[in-house]
Amino acid sequence: MALTAQERVHAAEEAVRQLREGLAGAGVTLPSLRIDPLTAAAEGSLPLVELGRCNLDTAMRLAAVLEGAR
User: Fold this and answer.
1) b/e code 41-55 from CB counts within 10 Å (16+ = b)
2) Of 3, 35, 59, 70, which shows the fewest CB atoms inside 10 Å?
3) Tens of pLDDT along 31-47?
4) Distance between CA atoms of 18 and 26, rounded to whole angstroms?
5) Which of 5, 14, 29 is nearest to 63 (CA)?
6) Going by C-beta distance under 8 Å and a sequence separation of 6 or more, which residues neighbour residue 35?
7) Which string of DSSP letters, residue by residue, matches 4-65?
8) Contact by Cβ (8 Å): 63, 55
9) For 55, phi and psi rounded to 5 degrees?
């Protein structure tokens, strides 16, 4: 089952939250960490998370690794 636009944005927001918390725990701040607004508005695709830019799957895996490292 495909995610709705709202579910995709919610997943991206959650990934950003987890990354921000995980990075802060490691003493790292990425001031531009955010959801890319152009890809969040795109129909049928997963939003990109801006760190310098990576896809949602990569951001979620990075958040999980940081959480496991704590």
Assistant:
1) eeeeebbbbbbeebb
2) 70
3) 889 999 888 887 777 88
4) 12
5) 14
6) 9, 12, 13, 16, 47, 48, 49, 50
7) PHHHHHHHHHHHHHHHHHHHHHTT---TT-EE-HHHHHSTTSPPEEETTTEEHHHHHHHHHH
8) no
9) -80, 165
30: closest CA among 50, 15, 55, 60?
A: 50
Mean pLDDT in runs of 10 for the chain (70 residues)? 82 93 82 89 83 80 80
Provide the number of structural domains found in the chain: 1
Please tell me the pTM assigned to this model: 0.73
Residue located via tokens 């089952």: 1
Tokens 């991206």 identify what position? 12
